Amino acid sequence: PFFHQRVFISLNKAHNSTRYISIMSEKAAPPAKPPQLDDIPELLTTMVEETGEKSAAATKRIYELCDVGHKQNRVPMVCSGKWDVLTPLAKCLTQESGDGRHLACLALNNLSIPTENKRVMALGPASKDVIGGLCKVIAEDKQESYLCCICLMNLSFLEASITTILQHSPVEEGEAPVNPLQNTNSLLRVLEKLLTNSPSVPKSGSGKSEGVRWACGLIKNLAKSEENAALFGKTDIPKCVIENIKASTAPPSRWTSNSLEDFSLFVVLNLAQWPVSKEALIEAGAVDVIKPIMSEGDLQGLKATMACAFLDAEWSAFPDGAQPASKSTAELMTNIVEKKGKDGQYAYGVFKLYTATKAFCDLSKAAAAGDSGDGESNTKTLAVPSAVALCFQVISDLVLAAVDDAEGGSKYVPDVMSAQHCACAVEYLLPAILQASDPPRKSVQSEKAASELSQMLNTYADLSGTAEVGKTAAKNAAEKIKASAGTARPVLEISHDLWTQYRKREGQPLDQFISQERGVEVDESGPLDFLPCCAPSKGDASCVIS
Asked: What secondary structure letter does DSSP report for 80?
């Protein structure tokens, strides 16, 4: 054989920040003459026109050009426009020769690492051949299946590609396109078959277990899109990932990054946030399986907490009166907006703001449902001023981004869904936000806060891109906040103050949401500005009543 192989996983210091999986082979002996980029045309010709050992030897040289010692070649090989290395490599994936196929998998993996290459490989002219070749190897259950899953996972870190990748549904030339759900050869059905046909507890480190593991890593990335989640929800994949978690013999605190369990819980989290796929998880008994994981104080606990919130778990299901759940989700929202991660748990970019804000919103909904009548014993757990101010910040930053004539702006422009989730959270938390001071007292600060915040929420509700649910929540909240202006509301005051401090730091206009419904100022002479002026006398331009 040409080599023995090792799989290297490249990670940042923070856990779960995998950006790519690098495959490297160790050669038994160094070649007499190192390959050069200028050799590529000849090598490609040999790969395509020859068979067997000659073709495999040329493929090996292509692999060596992009191995760990030649990283600088990876982008030129794919993006320079001088050669088409992707189509011949994809063709090698269909070879019966194990060596050629294996080497093509290794080369494609290394080429899929640079961001520039991901776009060409997943969305460019050769994308159909590349994705199709990788999918075919997985479908045929070759020993390289796990390498193909890793390659597709590398490509799926480019979010623009995830819909295209999962839509892969090959048909014979000239035939009409077939929906992935109706095509047994589609990537969707191939991944489902891989998961459903694996043993309940595949031998760790075996080809089968590695295939399932990296397939779940690929599904984790693909499930970030609502369109993809709708497809996954109509397969047995949700049931399979729940079974992966149930079958685990290790406690969640010992699940390593990129393990089967880690990937499976991420799949649950990503599918749970979309209405089109959450029902499939509920039917698979997801809440009962992941509820015990919430008590873990680490990344797995955070993922389980957010997933349970998405899956409509009752407030009483969250441990310790939901204090840890409230703190961790609010902290996650803050970290995302401030573009930072959490040491030892997650890097910035692992979670999206719309995921974190939805978790906070759904927790707020559970808290409000758990409170009786107008009570606030549960909602006040979530309605800490820093979290409430962050909700105001996300909504107002979206408004500033949407209003053309607004000055200033935010370093983090939120998406429409995040602002909607924050508006709904504010409405759910109003009993705690508007709790009156004890004893009751008047407060100019509360009156100012109520006026400015109700104006901001109404402005958000009137934006053309605001969905009906966000519009209704914002208008209801604005009305109740404005009506509360007569009495001191400490949480509202402090939240408003924190929001104002943020806007000062960002250089945003502080008069943006001050109500224009001002009274007419008068003095003892009465309002005279509407009266005509008499002809000035001796340079005196003052007005008099005639």
From this structure: S
Q: Quote the CA–CA distance of 398 and 279 in Å, as a whole number.
A: 31
Please name the helix (run of DSSP H) or strand (run of DSSP E) that holds residue 445, with its range, or none: helix 444-461
**Amino acid letter, residue 209:** S
pLDDT tens per residue, range 461-471: 999 889 999 99
Q: Residue 352 in contact with residue 224, Cβ under 8 Å?
A: yes
- Spatial separation of the C-alpha atoms in residues 54 and 270, rounded to whole Å: 45
What is the rounded distance in angstroms from the CA atom of residue 140 to the CA atom of residue 95?
12
* Cα gap 319→294, rounded to integer Å: 7
- Of 282, 277, 185, give the one whose Cα is nearest residue 234: 277
Query: 370 and 378 in contact (C-beta within 8 Å)?
Result: yes
**pTM score of the predicted model:** 0.84
Q: How far apart are CA 421 and CA 356, in angstroms?
A: 9
Which of the four pLDDT bands, split at 50, 70 and 90, describes residue 34? confident
Cα dihedral sign, 310-311-313-319 = negative
| Nearest by Cα to 104 from 91, 118, 120 | 91
Contact 452, 501 (CB under 8 A): no
Q: Which residue has the tokens 């000849």?
A: 42
Residue type, 411: K
- The Cα–Cα gap between 474 and 194 comes to 46
